[in-house]
Amino acid sequence: MTVLDTLANIGLLYFLFLVGLELDIRAIRRTGTNSLIIAVAGISLPFILGIGASVVLRSTVNKGVSNIVFLVFMGVALSITAFPVLARILAELKLLTTDVGRIAMSAAAVNDVVAWILLALAIALSGSDSSYLVSVWVLLCGTAFIVFSIFVLKPILSVMARRSPEGEPVKELYICITLSIVLAAGLITDIIGIHALFGAFVVGIIIPKDGPFAGVLIEKIEDLVSGLFLPLYFASSGLKTNVATIEGSQSWGLLVLVIFTACFGKIVGTVVLAMLFKVPFIEALALGVLMNTKGLVELIVLNIGKDRKVIYSRN
């Protein structure tokens, strides 16, 4: 399990790096008001419903855990959209260039950034047993890391991107340096007390998206990550999951409650707001279902919660 977890977590680091690499912050800035408000609705309603669900789950899965920390974890787990999965669904259905596809991608990108910020907050809070001053210190260090990334790492990565012009192969040295920076950033955020994944995610976001550099990085590591490392992460998660503990009417009732809360909040919140902006019902419903895309990202959130003892595991 130790070897399996190590390999899986290395793969996870690079997966979050790829997620950040595919997120273009400039595209989020250009997002119309409609997409932004739909994204806020898509994350707000499930988060609010998560408060109600956490009250019901208080006595079963969060014994001895701070209610605020558990609430934030529940809210993020229920409200996050699996951006990488959504991007691939839209690409395969050839919907990326349609209005629904553009709104869905923009809203999911905003949703992802907000959700990861909230998750960083929850992890910072969960790490302090004695004083909230520790949480404040963790958040300040995390902010300092982001500032360092923008003003120090980003110029270094920009130089390598500029020296990789269109039509010429990207130097292997640049790829090795970038992948080493990802590991180093993960180590730093892990030492800070947030999580190694955030360092990798931030590095992916700050890499310039112009030119072939970002595309070559994706091409070089995507097959290895998705073909080898991520299946190991699923295997590792499966080995830690005991489905036999779901027994009795209470357990099944809680399972149905969580699924219903997650899906209902996402779909209804998105559909209602989309229709207020004169989006036809069928397109609004399609948008709601797309925003409800679930995948590896939710599994990551839940595993982090379990590792941090925020989610109680009954054996």
From TrEMBL:
Localisation per UniProt entry: Membrane
Pfam family, one: Na_H_Exchanger
Domain Cation/H+ exchanger transmembrane, residue spans: 3-311
Segments crossing the lipid bilayer: 6-23, 35-56, 68-91, 103-126, 132-153, 174-207, 254-278, 284-305
UniProt similarity note: Belongs to the monovalent cation:proton antiporter 2 (CPA2) transporter (TC 2.A.37) family. CHX (TC 2.A.37.4) subfamily.
InterPro entries recorded: Cation/H_exchanger_TM (IPR006153), CPA2_transporter (IPR050794), Na+/solute_symporter_sf (IPR038770)
Topology relative to the membrane: Multi-pass membrane protein
Main location: membrane
Gene3D superfamilies documented for this protein: 1.20.1530.20
One of the GO BP terms on file: regulation of pH
Keyword annotations: Ion transport, Membrane, Potassium, Potassium transport, Transmembrane, Transmembrane helix, Transport
Full protein name: Cation/H+ exchanger transmembrane domain-containing protein
GO molecular function: antiporter activity
Annotated GO CC locations: endomembrane system; membrane
